[in-house]
């Protein structure tokens, strides 16, 4: 009988150890982005690294291009699968709100990344403070154009996504002190994250406004599209591009001077921290995880200004870095730098 009891005790201890060790592996979180693009590839790198570090399963999905219905359908699929948590960058926060509510009602915690949906039931937001970043972009443009100002066009991938709207609102406020800067595209030129269309829209703007002095690119696709059109038109240095994001393509175009400056986000950290927070919500409970966040439940991953060599000193007042300085900064933060 004693041997039997000892065997049962050992078996129970083994079972407890097995469950404890395997618990993290049972956590399955999902991350939904916006489109197939190097920016979202960086987010995916962060998602995968967090899953590896934490020993959880993380599934990453993006539509081919900005597609609200595709996001809704995929989120519904993840809900039906019974994943433990979902992070999403809603292309339309109003349209996604009911699906977010459905997930929450089924006990699946939902957070947003990159693009917020503050009026939904989402629990937290991880990403850029898009209004402040947009305002910084406006200040960069104002600094570059100087007192003379000039006509500026704006290109974006969405007229509904919160990050797009907030960046454009911030940009408008950022250039407000320079009364000689005039935005000539109202509403903004929208390409719906179609690269070919993005380039065409800039080409048309250059023809419509031959005296254009600046172009503000709201999404990752817009800066390179503008730079390509401006290079083809032979107007590098004449039309200054200020945009968002720091993919390898952005960095090369900045080195060439075709992009004057960009606002560098931290997509890798958005992906990493999203998986980290969802995993904590599952393992420790939602309330415990939220208690560690700021009161507004917003995790600001920060931004940087990166400028072409010809403009770095002009923008030092806004703490701009050169491409090489920025590269070293990312490496110091532990963020992978690939392709540039």
Q: Which terms would index this structure?
A:
7-stranded mixed β-sheet, 340 residues, Rossmann fold, single chain, globular, disordered N terminus, alpha/beta, 6-stranded parallel β-sheet, 50% helix, 2 domains
Rg from C-alpha positions? Answer: 23 Å
Largest sheet: 7 strands, mixed
Helix % is 40-55%
- Based on the structure given, which CATH architecture of the largest domain is correct? 3-Layer(aba) Sandwich
- CATH class of the largest domain, please? Alpha Beta
For the terminal residues, how far apart are their CA atoms? 69 Å
Topology as H/E string?
HEHEHEHEEHEHEEHEHEHEHHEEHH
- The total beta strand count reads 13
Oligomer, anyone? single chain
Please, how many domains?
2
For this structure, the CATH topology of the largest domain is Rossmann fold
Report the average pLDDT across residues.
92
User: What is the structural class?
Assistant: alpha/beta
Number of H/I helices: 13
Indicate the low-confidence ranges by residue numbers: 1-24
Shape: globular
Structure commentary:
With 340 residues, the protein is of the alpha/beta class. The chain folds into two domains: 23-128 and 267-300, Response regulator (Rossmann fold, 3-Layer(aba) Sandwich), CATH 3.40.50.2300; 130-264 and 308-332, 3-Layer(aba) Sandwich (Rossmann fold), CATH 3.40.50. The chain contains 13 helices and 13 strands. The chain has helices at residues 2-26, 38-54, 68-81, 93-105, 130-145, 162-174, 195-208, 222-232, 248-256, 267-284, 286-291, 309-312, 323-332, and strands at residues 28-32, 57-61, 85-88, 110-113, 125-127, 150-156, 181-183, 189-190, 212-217, 240-244, 261-264, 298-300, 304-307. The strands form two sheets. Strands 6, 7, 8, 9, 10, 11 and 13 form a seven-stranded mixed beta sheet that branches. The radius of gyration is 23 Å and the shape is globular. Mean pLDDT is 92; it is low at 1-24.
